[in-house]
Design goal:
about 325 residues, alpha+beta, four-stranded antiparallel sheet, elongated
Length: about 325
């Protein structure tokens, strides 16, 4: 990855008087935000103490001249989108937000970043401000990768969405979706190894952006690129609960960003949906994967059956889409 350097100044935050060496950036909009931050856009904003403005934000992650980690929030979403697109294409882009676009600077990083700025100290949290009297914000940090919970579950779902082809190739439809006794083939649980590790590795491999990070959960046994097959078993009751709550979204739309739709090859769409204790990743022309808080580190595939296609079509119709 080529480190893009820029200067962010003009705020009252400690980073304002120093150059910020930009390492990566991500979007925080109703249609696109790091799942680790929350189940939906308002929750993601709340985790950073931001108002959930419809236009969204850009999060610029970097280090100051002392090497301290900072997350600079800007309201110039287009600028961040252009930078990310350029980096994804292997192009250099100097992400230097205008000081008028800076909303705030938050200590720490909410995501794992695998690179560091050259010529400065190793990444570390900023020292507390003496005049804050202990009331300054605790530095942001990625979720603990040694436990399993909502953040790790959403990270796993993000990983599947970004590496759909690799995960789909591991599923043998003939065995994974054999109907349980007395039930239609709408989905079964599998012992596929979990993708509790999210890495936007397409960016890292292209040296254009940084991993958004998470490490293997306690029961994960493989890299996201090699989830492995699994023996079929009966449908986990948590799958039925997740699908029922997803169907309920059709009648009572959830908060913005709870259901998102993005591009997929062909005429399909990639659906990401979250709810209390569950996350779902699906393609409108294919199957779905469900992750549950109650099943640490496992991916539960859901076959198309007779109901899933209609559900995915309905979710796509109400989902927030990138502009």
């Amino acid at each position: 990855m080529t480190d893009e350097e820029g200067a962010v100044a003009g705020t009252d935050d400690p980073v304002a008087d120093d150059a910020l060496y930009v390492l990566t950036a991500v979007l925080l909009t109703p249609a696109q935000f790091p799942g680790v931050l929350g189940d939906d856009y308002p929750a993601a904003c709340a985790s950073l103490r931001l108002e959930p403005y419809a236009e969204g934000y850009g999060l610029v992650l970097g280090q100051d001249g002392d090497g301290a980690r900072w997350t600079v929030v800007i309201d110039d979403v287009s600028l961040v989108a252009v930078a990310i697109a350029s980096w994804d294409c292997g192009m250099e882009y100097d992400l230097s937000p205008d000081d008028r676009s800076v909303v705030c600077a938050l200590p720490g990083w909410p995501l794992a970043v695998s690179v560091a700025a050259p010529g400065v100290a190793a990444p570390h949290d900023p020292a507390p401000e003496p005049e804050a009297d202990g009331e300054d914000l605790a530095p942001l940090s990625p979720p603990d990768t040694d436990v399993w919970g909502p953040a790790q579950r959403r990270l796993g779902a993000d990983a599947i969405a970004s590496q759909w082809a690799k995960w789909r190739a591991q599923i043998d439809d003939a065995t994974a979706f054999a109907p349980a006794s007395g039930e239609s083939a709408t989905g079964t649980a599998s012992d596929a190894s979990a993708a509790t590790r999210t890495e936007t590795d397409t960016k890292a491999e292209n040296e254009t952006a940084t991993a958004t990070g998470a490490a293997d959960g306690p029961e994960a046994a493989a890299d996201p690129a090699d989830p492995g097959g699994g023996r079929a078993s009966g449908p986990h009751p948590g799958i039925r609960k997740a699908l029922a709550e997803a169907r309920a979204y059709v009648d009572e739309p959830p908060p913005p960003g709870r259901v998102r739709s993005s591009f997929a090859p062909g005429d399909a769409r990639m659906i990401r949906a979250d709810g209390p204790g569950w996350s779902m990743v699906a393609r409108t022309d294919d199957i779905a994967f469900v992750l549950l808080d109650e099943v640490p580190g496992e991916i539960l595939p859901v076959g198309r059956g007779t109901e899933l296609p209609g559900l995915l079509k309905a979710l796509d119709a109400l989902a927030v889409r990138p502009a």
